[in-house]
Write the structure tokens for this entry.
Amino acid sequence: MEIEFIEDKENKIVFIVKNAPVALVNAIRRAMIAHVPTMAVDYINVYMNTSYLYDEVLAHRIGLIPLKADIDKYNFQNECSCGGEGCPNCQVSLRLNVEGPKVVYSGDFVSDSPDVKPVYDNIPVVELYEGQQLMIEAVARLGTGKEHAKWKPVSICAYKIIPEIVIKEDCSLCKSCVEACPRNVLEVKKDKVVVKNVLDCSMCMECVKVCEDNSISVEETDNYLFTVESISMPAKEVLIRAVNVLRKKAEEMNEILEHM
Ligand SMILES: [Zn+2]
């Protein structure tokens, strides 16, 4: 298995995985979505809410605010020495104490821990009018996307097969495939139909359908184009953590099999 990065930005990576079984590629995708932990608000204590929104709606909105955190510093609540009651090692409070008139943004939360704070300060929560007040303690803890989507570290995490497009020698150069392709994957160069950019191919098979002399074929391969966009940690970190989660699970599996 080989990995080649095409795009390598803080919050977005695009890479090609070569010669890998589809089950493994899919396992990495699922691990990135569902098994890499992040911080998110799990419940709120409402001391005062005279806004137009119900407590439940506020709780839902606050839960969806992505939080930046040094996740290695925290334990999962069910694995913590406090027994799940909640302590500084497994949870962090973010306090909100605001009065209208104003629009309340994610940046208005004051965190008990300097390393846990909203990724963006400009996410609107609610608009308060004259005399309205919010006094809230939001309690964040570690969780995974498997439990709830608010703990997902990625907004996009998907792969597609990179096909092999073969144009045979007996091609009559009718160009119907070039015109039929909705993504402009093919072009005519030096009296030959050639593949311009195979990464754009979605395997819709329109070119194969219109070719009258069956001289074009689009086949699946063991190569995949992966796109990952992350929210609360660098995209590459999500990938590395996901691979480590898989490795740990595989070791556990081996141990179970050995004792069977
Ligand atoms: Zn604890």
